[in-house]
Amino acid sequence: MTITLALPSKGRMKDDALAACAKAGLAIEMVGNERSYRGRVVGDDGIDVAFLSASEIARELGNGGVDLGITGEDLVRETIPDVARRVAIGPRLGFGHADVIVAVPEIWLDVETMADLGDVAADFRQRHNRRLAIATKYWRLTRDFFSAKHGIQLYRIVESLGATEGAPAAGSADIIVDITSTGSTLKANHLKVLEDGVILRSEACLVRALTTDPTRREAAEALAARFGA
Ligand SMILES: Nc1ncnc2c1ncn2[C@@H]1O[C@H](COP(=O)(O)OP(=O)(O)OP(=O)(O)O)[C@@H](O)[C@H]1O
Ligand SMILES: O=P(O)(O)OC[C@H]1O[C@H](OP(=O)(O)OP(=O)(O)O)[C@H](O)[C@@H]1O
């Protein structure tokens, strides 16, 4: 039996993920040429390495297509329904830090908290004859935060797959839920984070798919332990 470890194939997490593996004592090498998306762990035939995008890693962990993966906690929580039953998240790996936040236009001077935003959402239909529109690619995190955590039901999600911070100025949404690290994109777009508007403080994590197969589970737990799980 082999287990599969998924690592980011590109993007901001790739090099740090390989460094985290090296720190865990795993030397990863490509199988075939540099453009191949398969790898192996030197000296350990029980582990296959699959190079996927960070978001694909989250999806594959959710459907059991890979046993372990390194990816952002935000992608894992957004992509996988009933996440606690499907995967074990952690340890946190100390890179890929980003916060998923609720931001509103700076000129909304009387809106500083989620409670203020709830009041705005409630009044919105009467004032503007439509629901408050939230631009985001984080549908699940937004619904959980607004509806379940803050009891705000009167809103509409507008799917945004890029340049989300531009949506309020462009008129396609009123507010946003997106990721921020330095805050400079928010600032450039005259948006402010609500005081209690941090939905998730995300970073790269080692994530393990939960399985009922005892042999698989033991092998995956042993590998996770090398990362400090
Ligand atoms: N400044 C940032 N902007 C966006 N994501 C960031 C930032 N800093 C860290 N991250 C994290 O990086 C991850 C996304 O990485 P990346 O964009 O490489 O992956 P991806 O979504 O799979 O890529 P793609 O959209 O190109 O398929 C997320 O977990 C996110 O939290
Ligand atoms: O708080 P900041 O440091 O300004 O970073 C936040 C921005 O960075 C990311 O976009 P990026 O340009 O990396 O592209 P992506 O959305 O395709 O990942 C993210 O979507 C934000 O727009």
TrEMBL record:
Any one of the GO CC terms: cytoplasm
The keyword Membrane is assigned to this record: no
The ATP phosphoribosyltransferase catalytic domain, residue ranges: 54-226
Known pathway: Amino-acid biosynthesis; L-histidine biosynthesis; L-histidine from 5-phospho-alpha-D-ribose 1-diphosphate: step 1/9
NCBIfam families named among the record's database cross-references: hisG (TIGR00070)
UniProt family annotation: Belongs to the ATP phosphoribosyltransferase family. Short subfamily.
Protein name from the UniProt record: ATP phosphoribosyltransferase
Species the sequence originates in: Georhizobium profundi
Lineage, broadest ranks: Bacteria, Pseudomonadati, Pseudomonadota, Alphaproteobacteria, Hyphomicrobiales
